[in-house]
Amino acid sequence: MPREAEPSNNAKAFLLQALRENVRLDGRAFDEFRQIDLSFGDEYGVATARLGKTKVMVRVSSEVVKASADRKFDGVFTISTELSPIASPAFEVGRQDQAEVLLSRILEKTIRRSGALDTESLCIIAGQKCFHVRADVHVLDHDGSLVDASCLALVAALMHYRRPDFEVRGEEVQIFDPREREPIKLSMQHQPFCVTFGYYEDGSVMLLDSTLLEEQCREGEVMISMNRFGEICQIAKYSGEPVDAMSVLNCMNVALEKVKVFDKLVKAKLEEDEKRRDVGGLMAELSAENAR
Amino acid sequence: MPLDTSTYILAHLRLDGRRWNELRRLQAQMSTQAAADGSSYFEMGNTKIICTVAGPQEQKSGGGGRSQQDKAKIEVEVNFAGFSGMDRKKRARSDKRTSEMQHTIASAFESTLLTHLFPHSTITLNLHILSQDGSLLAACLNAATLALVDAGIPMTDYISATTVATTASYADKEEEADPLLDLNGLEEQELPFLTIASSGGEDRVCSLVLETKVHMARLEPMISVGLDGCSQIRGILDGVIRAHGRKVLEGKVG
């Protein structure tokens, strides 16, 4: 079974010594994110997020399925995560890695359990037909902060996606092709984002957006998901040395600031994408001057 | 399942008649299983757990080259008895919730156990859940602490854990919101709650898991009440361990 190569003792000691002197190896401030880059694909519902070298692609798709018997008025929403060898040689195909389980649980709690996506709006005929929205998270490059990047990409993809429109006539359901009728945006109730804090030196140094090396050297981490209204969707501090309760509470305030930045970024990028797609509506499309 | 919690506003008594800062009845025993290296039985209200510890023992072959060799590896297995819940359903072995719980417990103890004293070895914790009625993760952590003490594995401090909920999930009901300590199963379904574990000092948070949506203004009272509950539980665990130690000294237990 392959696993991530341990950093050498010298590399670890160097990183920790630098942190003691308030320096990060890549020169960032402790609460500074790497360059965040968000781009959308040609299709609706494809988003790629980059945090420095970390790269995550999310693809959202939907199909019409039979509604489950115990949740008649709800559609289905699933998130599937995949850590493949393309991200890092430490990941293997088919083996459920601990990291993968945690990533999918955190995403599940952040997006699904907090009710970010309104599943009731995915219902077509109660108890019979509903949409199954599926989000596939593909990690393409792993250099730390996987959860943060995945969450960002996932929320962006969900906001970008449009499901086909439908019409119900009695028992008949007609699903319209995107060319027939403009597809419809999913109804999102809020947009949660995840911020991971890694801590060192007995909790006195808190780092945001750790690189892989920083992750391997840290004493523990706190993952916080919240939306821009300050509603916390999830906190997970699994491992690591105990920290002061006060510093956990301080993390919340920092996380809120960062979440607001994420929120603005996603909205700005979506607007940009919308402008790029907008060719002038149906009238421009039907113009006789267009190429055949 | 909507549950009527409105009675709380009237009398400030919870469904089972407790006040907001009351723990449920805690009962614990140590060395319950003769065959295991360490074992404990732990009850937190109606949540009942048996924990057994095997090890530190030689690492099983197969997983050999994978883990770090310079310290002991902690493995946790959580088993839900078929009769533990309301309805009898079989859980898949690879259930993500269970494996997250196992990871939480294992990594919580990695920070308190002196694992570097046992290189090339494994410590296996087996948690058998006999009855579930809320605060499951917290009860598992407490039971595991007792069993690890019984197994004689050196640790820096006990891990004591509990759950806290808040009666209002949004900021607009500021003055009505009360934190509630140590939830039972019904309260857990209804209210936003967190599991908090503390070790190594009064206000040191060892693990913290929150899964339901709650406003950040609610968090501070929840954490402080939780830490207070943790120190109460710590006192109870300490009492159990000392009583057991006395019995061993008097030769009443093998």
UniProtKB/TrEMBL annotation, chain A:
<dbReference type="GO" id="GO:0000467">
    <property type="term" value="P:exonucleolytic trimming to generate mature 3'-end of 5.8S rRNA from tricistronic rRNA transcript (SSU-rRNA, 5.8S rRNA, LSU-rRNA)"/>
</dbReference>
<dbReference type="GO" id="GO:0005730">
    <property type="term" value="C:nucleolus"/>
</dbReference>
<dbReference type="Pfam" id="PF01138">
    <property type="entry name" value="RNase_PH"/>
</dbReference>
<dbReference type="GO" id="GO:0016075">
    <property type="term" value="P:rRNA catabolic process"/>
</dbReference>
<feature type="domain" description="Exoribonuclease phosphorolytic">
    <location>
        <begin position="32"/>
        <end position="164"/>
    </location>
</feature>
<comment type="similarity">
    <text>Belongs to the RNase PH family.</text>
</comment>
<dbReference type="GO" id="GO:0071038">
    <property type="term" value="P:TRAMP-dependent tRNA surveillance pathway"/>
</dbReference>
<dbReference type="InterPro" id="IPR050590">
    <property type="entry name" value="Exosome_comp_Rrp42_subfam"/>
</dbReference>
<dbReference type="InterPro" id="IPR033100">
    <property type="entry name" value="Rrp45"/>
</dbReference>
<dbReference type="GO" id="GO:0035925">
    <property type="term" value="F:mRNA 3'-UTR AU-rich region binding"/>
</dbReference>
<dbReference type="InterPro" id="IPR036345">
    <property type="entry name" value="ExoRNase_PH_dom2_sf"/>
</dbReference>
<dbReference type="GO" id="GO:0000176">
    <property type="term" value="C:nuclear exosome (RNase complex)"/>
</dbReference>
<dbReference type="InterPro" id="IPR020568">
    <property type="entry name" value="Ribosomal_Su5_D2-typ_SF"/>
</dbReference>
<dbReference type="GO" id="GO:0034473">
    <property type="term" value="P:U1 snRNA 3'-end processing"/>
</dbReference>
<dbReference type="GO" id="GO:0034475">
    <property type="term" value="P:U4 snRNA 3'-end processing"/>
</dbReference>
<dbReference type="GO" id="GO:0071035">
    <property type="term" value="P:nuclear polyadenylation-dependent rRNA catabolic process"/>
</dbReference>
<dbReference type="Pfam" id="PF03725">
    <property type="entry name" value="RNase_PH_C"/>
</dbReference>
<protein>
    <recommendedName>
        <fullName>Exosome complex component RRP45</fullName>
    </recommendedName>
</protein>
<keyword id="KW-0963">Cytoplasm</keyword>
<keyword id="KW-0539">Nucleus</keyword>
<dbReference type="GO" id="GO:0000177">
    <property type="term" value="C:cytoplasmic exosome (RNase complex)"/>
</dbReference>
<keyword id="KW-0271">Exosome</keyword>
From TrEMBL, chain B:
<dbReference type="GO" id="GO:0000177">
    <property type="term" value="C:cytoplasmic exosome (RNase complex)"/>
</dbReference>
<dbReference type="InterPro" id="IPR020568">
    <property type="entry name" value="Ribosomal_Su5_D2-typ_SF"/>
</dbReference>
<dbReference type="GO" id="GO:0005730">
    <property type="term" value="C:nucleolus"/>
</dbReference>
<dbReference type="GO" id="GO:0071051">
    <property type="term" value="P:poly(A)-dependent snoRNA 3'-end processing"/>
</dbReference>
<feature type="domain" description="Exoribonuclease phosphorolytic">
    <location>
        <begin position="22"/>
        <end position="154"/>
    </location>
</feature>
<comment type="similarity">
    <text>Belongs to the RNase PH family.</text>
</comment>
<dbReference type="GO" id="GO:0034475">
    <property type="term" value="P:U4 snRNA 3'-end processing"/>
</dbReference>
<keyword id="KW-0963">Cytoplasm</keyword>
<dbReference type="GO" id="GO:0000176">
    <property type="term" value="C:nuclear exosome (RNase complex)"/>
</dbReference>
<dbReference type="GO" id="GO:0003723">
    <property type="term" value="F:RNA binding"/>
</dbReference>
<dbReference type="InterPro" id="IPR027408">
    <property type="entry name" value="PNPase/RNase_PH_dom_sf"/>
</dbReference>
<dbReference type="GO" id="GO:0016075">
    <property type="term" value="P:rRNA catabolic process"/>
</dbReference>
<dbReference type="GO" id="GO:0071028">
    <property type="term" value="P:nuclear mRNA surveillance"/>
</dbReference>
<comment type="subunit">
    <text>Component of the RNA exosome complex. Specifically part of the catalytically inactive RNA exosome core complex (Exo-9) which may associate with the catalytic subunits RRP6 and DIS3 in cytoplasmic- and nuclear-specific RNA exosome complex forms. Exo-9 is formed by a hexameric base ring of RNase PH domain-containing subunits and a cap ring consisting of CSL4, RRP4 and RRP40.</text>
</comment>
<protein>
    <recommendedName>
        <fullName>Ribosomal RNA-processing protein 41</fullName>
    </recommendedName>
</protein>
<keyword id="KW-0271">Exosome</keyword>
<dbReference type="InterPro" id="IPR001247">
    <property type="entry name" value="ExoRNase_PH_dom1"/>
</dbReference>
<dbReference type="InterPro" id="IPR036345">
    <property type="entry name" value="ExoRNase_PH_dom2_sf"/>
</dbReference>
<dbReference type="Pfam" id="PF01138">
    <property type="entry name" value="RNase_PH"/>
</dbReference>
<dbReference type="InterPro" id="IPR050080">
    <property type="entry name" value="RNase_PH"/>
</dbReference>
